[in-house]
């Protein structure tokens, strides 16, 4: 059971347009309910408040866990992961078909750490594109 009140969860889901705010997958058609992620983890003092919550698919949520940073695969430098509440997605990523292309060190670290281009996610995005539901608005 989630300790996030239903009304708050609903607010997060609606704000995200029923999509993972990291990798862009749609909640529609997924068997498992997406998680409400604490962008700044609770263990690091992050509050359970709208400005610290993001909708995340199960895969991105589990890979992110309580991390706030990860190594940039090009430099090895530890950098902050993308924050859906304080950063703009298109500043760090772009779409190349169904693939998320990182544009910054934050983008590279996030794509690698969350495995945003894992084969199943890319396949689902391709199928969504065929139905006119990808890329996200």
From TrEMBL:
<protein>
    <submittedName>
        <fullName>HNH endonuclease</fullName>
    </submittedName>
</protein>
<keyword id="KW-0378">Hydrolase</keyword>
<keyword id="KW-0540">Nuclease</keyword>
<dbReference type="InterPro" id="IPR003615">
    <property type="entry name" value="HNH_nuc"/>
</dbReference>
<dbReference type="GO" id="GO:0003676">
    <property type="term" value="F:nucleic acid binding"/>
</dbReference>
<keyword id="KW-0255">Endonuclease</keyword>
<feature type="domain" description="HNH nuclease">
    <location>
        <begin position="7"/>
        <end position="62"/>
    </location>
</feature>
<dbReference type="InterPro" id="IPR052892">
    <property type="entry name" value="NA-targeting_endonuclease"/>
</dbReference>
<dbReference type="GO" id="GO:0004519">
    <property type="term" value="F:endonuclease activity"/>
</dbReference>
<dbReference type="Pfam" id="PF01844">
    <property type="entry name" value="HNH"/>
</dbReference>
<dbReference type="GO" id="GO:0008270">
    <property type="term" value="F:zinc ion binding"/>
</dbReference>
<dbReference type="InterPro" id="IPR002711">
    <property type="entry name" value="HNH"/>
</dbReference>
């Amino acid at each position: 059971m989630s300790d996030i009140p239903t009304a708050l969860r609903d607010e997060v889901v609606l704000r995200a347009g029923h999509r993972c705010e990291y990798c862009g997958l749609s909640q529609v058609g997924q068997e498992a309910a997406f998680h409400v992620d604490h962008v700044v983890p609770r263990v690091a003092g992050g509050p359970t408040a709208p400005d610290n919550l993001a909708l995340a698919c199960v895969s991105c949520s589990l890979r992110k866990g309580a991390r706030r940073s990860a190594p940039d695969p090009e430099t090895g430098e530890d950098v902050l992961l993308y924050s859906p509440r304080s950063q703009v997605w298109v500043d760090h990523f772009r779409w190349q078909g169904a693939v998320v292309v990182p544009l910054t060190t934050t983008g590279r670290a996030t794509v690698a750490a969350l495995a945003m281009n894992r084969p199943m996610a890319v396949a689902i995005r391709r199928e969504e594109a065929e139905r006119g539901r990808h890329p996200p608005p």
